[in-house]
Amino acid sequence: MEAKEPQITHNPVLQRYYAAWESRLGYRLLMGGTRHFGYHPLGTIWPLPLSAALRRMEDHLYQLLELPAGSKILDAGCGNCHVALRFARKGLRVQGIDIVANHVQWAKQEIKAQKMENMVSARVADYHHLDWVPDMSFDGVCTMETFVHAREPEQVLSEFFRILKPGGSIAMHEYWHLDDDELPPGTPTDLIESIKRIDRESAMPTDRRLRKGVLQQMFMDQGFVVVVEKDLSRNIAPTLLLFYVLGYIPYLIICFFGLQAWFVNTEAGVQGYRGLKRHLWGYSAVKAKKPLRKFDDFEEDVRSRRNEDRQPPSMRPRPS
Q1: How many CA atoms lie within 13 A of 268 on its CB side?
Q2: How far is residue 272's CA from residue 207's CA, in Å, rounded to a whole number?
Q3: In angstroms, rounded to a whole number, what is the distance separating the alpha carbons of residues 165 and 162?
Q4: Which of 59, 77, 156, 206 has its CA 20 to 30 A from that of 149?
């Protein structure tokens, strides 16, 4: 019997964004094919070499997972598998998935070139539909700035919960932003419109929902226990400053001709830096764990303990 082909959600905006020449050329020339921000120690001004900062961000996500060598993890939105390969060198076994076929093709070439076939694999698949993955088959799940692309984030987290083993870890590096009614007075209108256009043209519907604390609540609603949450906004600022400096003059020309929707990455580099400096958006690292027992049992145990604490000492159950 043939293995079931993964179901892929039709997402033409996402496919168009990653197929655009600006995305392909920009990610390749500036980032070496990597598609995430760099991590810079606080106090850093000069962002170069950028490759070192990119590897530090990958190491931060690895440390957040906190899994022993030999653990099996799912890299959801693996791109070229740079994150997966970094993890594999530290002893993790990684299954990468991505809905962009070109990304998976490049990932397989990278895996083969680095002779890591025994540690890393990549396939076209959609994190909304993981029915091809058995229950409780992974020790960890991670996303590196890819959960924001989810159309149904609750469905994605439900699938992650199902495929994780009890006690398994999930770690995410994702964005957060202020809602419209939280924007400080005097926020430039062009900046507000730019942020909305960036989300729309780069297919990030979940980013519109990820206000501070929302991702953590989504985790808890699906049964996870949030362990760590940390704001890394200041750590990515030097990378954004580099994008701002490189993109400022081209962006002025783009705006003059009204071509912002065709150069979304350039707009993101310039306006993203302005928005970060005004604290309109930021970058978070969040880790959660799947309880060792079924969530219902876990919740019942918590409620039982709370009820016991409310009882007078004379009425509390005595230890056997």
Answers
A1: 21
A2: 13
A3: 8
A4: 59
pLDDT at 308 over 70: no
The number of residues in the chain equals 320
Contact partners, residue 288, CB within 8 Å, separation at least 6: 169, 170, 216, 219, 224, 225, 226, 227
pLDDT tens-place string over residues 91-116: 999 999 999 999 999 999 999 999 99
Which of left, alpha, beta for 223 (phi over 0: left; psi -120 to 50: alpha)? left
Taking the CA atoms of 128, 129, 130 and 136 in sequence, report the sign of the dihedral they define.
Answer: positive
> Which residues make Cβ contacts (< 8 Å) with residue 318, sequence separation at least 6?
none
Q: Are 295 and 223 within 8 A, CB to CB?
A: yes
Output the 3-class SS for the chain.
CCCCCCCCCCCHHHHHHHHCHHHHHHHHHHHCCCCCCCCCCCCCCCCCCHHHHHHHHHHHHHHHHCCCCCCEEEEECCCCCHHHHHHHHCCCEEEEEECCHHHHHHHHHHHHHCCCCCCEEEEECECCECCCCCCCCEEEEEEECCHHHCCCHHHHHHHHHHHEEEEEEEEEEEEEECCHHHCCCCCCHHHHHHHHHHHHHCCCHHHHCCCCCHHHHHHHHCCCEEEEEEECHHHHHHHHHHHHHHHHHHHHHHHHCCCHHHCHHHHHHHHHHHHHHCCCEEEEEEEEECCCCCHHHHHHHHHHHHHHHHCCHHHCCCCC
